[in-house]
Design a protein that fits this description.
Strand order of the largest sheet: 2-10-7-8
CATH architecture of the largest domain: Alpha-Beta Complex
CATH superfamily of the largest domain: DNA methylase specificity domains
Strand content: 15-25%
Oligomer: single chain
Helix content: 25-40%
CATH topology of the largest domain: Adenine-n6-DNA-methyltransferase TaqI, Chain A, domain 2
Radius of gyration: 28 Å
Structural class: alpha+beta
Low-confidence stretches: 407-411
Amino acid sequence: MMGLQELTLGEIYDVRDGTHDSPKYQDDGYPLVTSKNLKQGALNLDKIKYISEEDYLKINERSAVHMGDVLLAMIGTIGNPIVIEIEPNFAIKNVALFKISSEQNSRFLKYYLESPFVTEKMTREAKGTTQKFVGLGYLRSFPMLLPPLTEQKRIVAILDQAFAEIDKARANAEQNLKNARELFESYLQQIFSQRGEGWVENTLGNICSFKHGFAFKSEYFTKDSDLVLLTPGNFFEKGGYKDRGEKQKYYKGPFPEEFLLAKGSLLVAMTEQAAGLLGSPALVPENSIFLHNQRLGLVELIPDFQENVSLEFLFHFFNTNYFRAKVQKTASGLKVRHTSPKKMQVISVWIPESRNEQDRIAREIFKFKEKTIGLERVYKQKLNQLDELKKSILQKAFTGELTQNNHDAAA
């Protein structure tokens, strides 16, 4: 890029920040925007807090936001710059404010602050342990190679066009991903709602019981052991076992042998530590030794049904909308909802009389799930590729490669 100047952000822009105080919140009034409200290039006011007119005017004496200004999150997830394109009626806290003169371009600064060089450097150099932050002095001294305004506008035009195409492709990929997930959900509900001949209605309490787990002592928790402590955190909301990686809990203490889980055992989450988790099932994997922790219900078939009911079939039944809705109706608790074996045992279930038919249906559902997982993987990869493409284009834009390529093409 021709005519570049090596400057700092503070030499180019009027860089300020919002209040450092904690004004009193109220039910309505003026919105107080914080770093949490800057998301994916836009201002998100879903969980906004409100302040009085007095506090609003006091904050805006030094940090008033106007159209064309650029905001940047200074604490937590650093970055997420946005350009103010509508008349603002809010004050700011823990947010950097860049006042843009007529000699500069707001969107050029936004794109610069989104570039990999800037985001990686700020993240790496941020202060703090539990919560990272960058200070006002740091931002004012942050380096920038500034081209003339005409070149800024040209770079912005190129990026706007490229990102419009990327956003369009991303929207298509996200819709395809959503469709793949809904395809399996539709298939699963159809299997259990359009029951064929030979299906028999029963209650869960007539065919199985739900056994509570053991309260393992935290003093024996460890980061490494042959014994894996199965918890609700090991359950996907849509069912299935989740490997927690470094967050996985292990155990090195004494425990009753009856709480050592057999391979292929079926368990159900009896508490909702995350939305959608209550009633979620998981089959015990074969790759480790697992312990039956509290807040999980172990499905134990009654002797008369041990040879006639497939746990894999029940696993899929526990993933149906019908079953999950029934479990929610049995639940109690405000912050964390939970159910009990007694409440779950009254839920009705329909099962083919033929064990072979149960096994066949379970196999078909697992196969269909694998196909949809494959589709999801393809679309997720596409989304990752689009994100990487966007980063690459931004990187080139601020190293001169993008405009040089366009100059060469024009020549």
